[in-house]
Amino acid sequence: MGYGPVPATDKALAKAGLSIDDIGLFEVNEAFAVQVLAFLEHYGIADDDPRVNPMGGAIAVGHPLATSGIRLMAYLARSFERHPEVQFGVTTMCIGLGMGGTIIWENPHCTASAGEYHGSKG
């Protein structure tokens, strides 16, 4: 349990025709600290990258039953407002029995031109 966000994110990126470099913000649920570390290691993202959980993760703010997904979406929405240069963001979390879920979101506040990605290399 805890590694599920990695294959879920791989599948979501493939379906969207994007790479991890196209993602400018990440909200990774911290059900366990090692879950986030495994995600970051897999994608070669530094553990202090400011794009990851910029408003604090579940270890800092809590992990209430049945509301963590909503918190991830709300935090990403707020971060999109603060970062109009970012075109795409990800919410991802582990689910019981080793599964994971990932959604790629497009920033409605993005100031990028059509087809111009603003992720980690934007």
TrEMBL record:
GO terms for molecular function: acetyl-CoA C-acyltransferase activity. GO terms for biological process: fatty acid beta-oxidation; phenylacetate catabolic process. InterPro entries: Thiolase-like, Thiolase-like_sf_Thiolase, Thiolase_C, Thiolase_CS. This is Unannotated protein. Residues 1-106 form the Thiolase C-terminal domain. Signal peptide: none annotated. It holds the Pfam family Thiolase_C. Transmembrane segments: none annotated.
